[in-house]
Amino acid sequence: MTIQQDIFNAIEQNDVIIIHRHERPDPDALGSQVGLATTIKATFPDKSVYAVGDGDVGNLSWLAEMDEIPDETYRDALVIVTDTADTPRVANQRYNMGKMLIKIDHHPNDDPYGDITWVDTTASSTSELLMSFIDSMDGKLKLVAPAARLFYAGIVGDTGRFMFNNTTPHTLETAAKLISYDFDPTAVNQKMNEITLSQARLQGEVFENLHIEQGGAAYTIITRQRIKELGLEDDQVQAAVNTPSRLGNVLAWMLFVEQVDGTYRVNLRSKGPIINELAKAHNGGGHPLASGAKAADKQEIDQMVQELITIATNYEKE
């Protein structure tokens, strides 16, 4: 029996299913979470299926909203966590209150939690992985247009509109299948490309203040004061993460985003050098070319910058 069949059996055998995703959701987190919930509801109309997170979903409310449920709902429930590599990042820590837990993810499996753990790092996104799950069930799971829209958004988001090297022939085949359903992919693409004027100004400041070091390593610091001056919410700062990728002489980069407590959330991205080990060394992790970490202070920022320079310089020599 395959792990996909094990997951299907768990879904089939449970009347209450609660699906979680990671905090600070991106399109794949919401797409995989709510896309799976929508698919289960369409297949098993009599089941109670919920998508749960902490608070609202920021500027992705056009994609999906969360359900609010009491603790009692978790009693005898199957809980599924999608697109979340490690338990501290699960949005809403009640995920472990159910009777059974399943992890479905495409990040490196550094924290193999759950009674069933299905991780495939070759998938571009958890949305693509869930489409493989649906296909493997030979019609036992019903894919409907609202779910197709969500999975499509997840794939577009995690592939950088098919520009990242995680885009495979299977990724494009899956996207082609999804857009055959009755939703407007152009509207999804346009919405995902949309930013506010304040976000556009932040992107301009990233270009203006970007430090480009030896080997094409680059970084910039986004202060709490500037975030406040621009009137941005924390989730809106993410619009600037990939801004340095457009510069030909930048190979790998970090954005240090100051938090309320004076620490920094660090976004690491790369065009080639592996940077997730650097992230792991600083309370983070993620994909080889796209990771997140934390820096306690300016001293740790300086340390991380030097480590990135070493990685980029060594890559340049290879």
TrEMBL record:
<dbReference type="InterPro" id="IPR038763">
    <property type="entry name" value="DHH_sf"/>
</dbReference>
<dbReference type="GO" id="GO:0003676">
    <property type="term" value="F:nucleic acid binding"/>
</dbReference>
<dbReference type="Pfam" id="PF02272">
    <property type="entry name" value="DHHA1"/>
</dbReference>
<dbReference type="InterPro" id="IPR051319">
    <property type="entry name" value="Oligoribo/pAp-PDE_c-di-AMP_PDE"/>
</dbReference>
<dbReference type="Pfam" id="PF01368">
    <property type="entry name" value="DHH"/>
</dbReference>
<protein>
    <submittedName>
        <fullName>Phosphoesterase, DHH family protein</fullName>
    </submittedName>
</protein>
<feature type="domain" description="DDH">
    <location>
        <begin position="17"/>
        <end position="155"/>
    </location>
</feature>
<dbReference type="InterPro" id="IPR001667">
    <property type="entry name" value="DDH_dom"/>
</dbReference>
<feature type="domain" description="DHHA1">
    <location>
        <begin position="229"/>
        <end position="311"/>
    </location>
</feature>
<dbReference type="InterPro" id="IPR003156">
    <property type="entry name" value="DHHA1_dom"/>
</dbReference>
